[in-house]
Automatic annotation (TrEMBL):
Family the UniProt entry places it in: Belongs to the DNA polymerase type-Y family.
Domain of life: Bacteria
Name used for this protein in its record: DNA polymerase IV
Gene3D superfamilies with a match to the protein in the record: 3.30.70.270, 3.40.1170.60, 5' to 3' exonuclease, C-terminal subdomain (1.10.150.20)
Any one Gene Ontology BP term: SOS response
Gene Ontology MF terms: damaged DNA binding; DNA-directed DNA polymerase activity
Species in which this protein is naturally found: Mucilaginibacter arboris
Domain annotation UmuC: ranges: 14-197
One Pfam family in the UniProt entry: IMS_C
GO cellular component: cytosol
SUPFAM superfamilies the UniProt entry points to: DNA/RNA polymerases
Length: 430
């Protein structure tokens, strides 16, 4: 389903529905005692587990997503850590999507807690989009869960509708129209626009484009030059009522995982090679789909059922196995240095899992981006060093030559799974 078109839409008939603090709210929905209390949803609730989602009460106490529990509990001793429950969130997700589909078939889930409802072609049935947005909020509360709230943005295109939902905040409802868009944008910074990170904001500022309002009135060719990519043109479209965001993202994430048998876990070389093989598996899949990832997750499981989890976002999308591996290793080293804890890779390892999410499909963008990043110096040097050392296309062959045995093992166990069902997706901050 691709409903993008370069036609300018002026009527605000696209709804962006964003569930508030979704994972935490689902937990509070199912356990009455948790309501009104600071809750942190974690993949793992041990000392070094980290919060992947927080209730508004926890956010108010200054707890941030990504904080490790030992830090978070210091900040907020009443914090209640809960192990995440993906089937529960998927169930609620499905119920919510079914409510939305009641209004029109053009519903596009964007993540586990976000969806677009495109009412553009249903003007005869629903002349008033604001009325429908209010109905949706009521339906969700009445039929799915009284504790489940959402912020809805309404605009002529999906991007501006999302911006509206962001601006609406908790239980919000914001409408962005051709009449009020300039006023709405005037209150925002560049980095308030979903998709504009710190690096890009800095690049725009250096080019003399300092506010979203100014960006809206910048010619598409100029934005293309600043972005050094067609993305710049899309940004002009987004801010000028042309649709670019109305397509289904097929892949939300991919993961590669492996159990490690008792006779292998005391062999550091095996573990090292397995690690590289898992990274290479993900690289092959990302290359196949022309994806680069911006979010990486990593789990080490141990024989006593404990685990070490990490997850982080990067500003420069990557695709290659070695960058993936180095970034994870760097995180591990920083963790070991900071905590003086036992090494993450030790002879009690029983499994490894690597996840990549937050894809961008950018063709050849990686290298052009590397030429122009301001804060990616280290990453750039690393990449060039790798290219020089192995050559861009020799990388994979080098891997296959050195660990043919491990590759065979991976195929033998046969457990590499793509996540098409929104597993492990983290909800947005709203
Ligand atoms: Mg949300």
């Amino acid at each position: 389903m691709n409903q993008n078109s370069i036609k300018v839409q002026t009527e605000p008939r696209v709804l962006f529905v964003d569930m508030n603090s979704f994972f935490a709210r689902c937990e509070q929905q199912d356990n009455y005692w948790l309501r009104g209390r600071p809750v942190a949803v974690c993949v793992y609730t041990g000392q070094y587990g980290f919060a992947i989602a927080l209730s508004v009460e926890a956010k108010r106490m200054g707890v941030k997503t990504g904080m490790r529990l030992n830090e978070a509990m210091k900040l907020c001793p009443e914090l209640i850590p809960l192990e995440s429950n993906p089937p529960r969130y998927r169930q609620y997700h499905t119920k919510i999507i079914n409510i939305l589909k009641r209004y029109c078939p053009e519903v596009i889930p964007k993540s586990i807690d976000e969806a677009i409802v495109n009412l553009t072609n249903y003007k005869m049935v629903y002349p008033d989009a604001v009325f429908i947005a209010k109905k949706i909020k009521e339906d969700i509360k009445r039929e799915v869960g009284d504790w489940l709230t959402c912020s809805i943005g309404i605009a002529p295109n999906a991007f501006l509708a999302k911006l509206g939902s962001d601006m609406g905040g908790f239980d919000g409802l914001q409408i962005i129209t051709t009449q009020n868009i300039d006023d709405k944008l005037a209150s925002l910074k560049l980095s308030d626009l979903p998709g504009i990170g710190k690096n890009m904001a800095y690049r725009l500022e250096r080019a003399g484009i300092t506010t979203p309002l100014q960006m809206r009135y910048t010619a598409p060719e100029r934005l293309k030059a600043v972005f050094k990519s067609i993305e710049g043109v899309y940004w002009h479209y987004k801010l000028n009522f042309i649709e670019t965001g109305m397509s289904v993202t097929d892949y939300k994430g991919m993961q590669a995982m492996r159990q490690i048998s008792a006779d292998k876990r005391s062999n550091p070389e095996y573990i090292e090679q397995l690690f590289l093989t898992l990274c290479t598996t993900l690289e092959k899949r990302m290359v196949h789909h022309h994806f680069y990832c911006k979010n990486i997750g990593f789990t080490v499981k141990y024989t006593d059922d404990s685990r070490w989890d990490d997850g982080f976002s990067i500003s420069i999308p990557i695709q290659d196995a070695i960058s993936l591996m180095r970034m994870i290793k760097k995180r591990i080293m920083q963790f070991e240095e900071k905590t003086q804890a036992a090494p993450v890779f030790n002879d009690k390892i029983s499994g490894l899992r690597i996840m990549v999410t937050d894809f961008v499909n950018t063709g050849k963008m990686m290298y052009s981006l590397f030429e122009d990043v301001n804060r990616g110096e280290t990453a750039r040097k690393t990449m060039y060093a790798i290219q020089q050392k192995f050559g861009a296309d020799k990388l994979k062959r080098a891997v296959e030559v050195t660990d043919g045995k491990v590759v065979a093992d991976v195929i033998g166990f046969g457990c590499v799974k793509d996540l098409t069902e929104l597993d492990y997706l983290m909800p947005g901050e709203n």
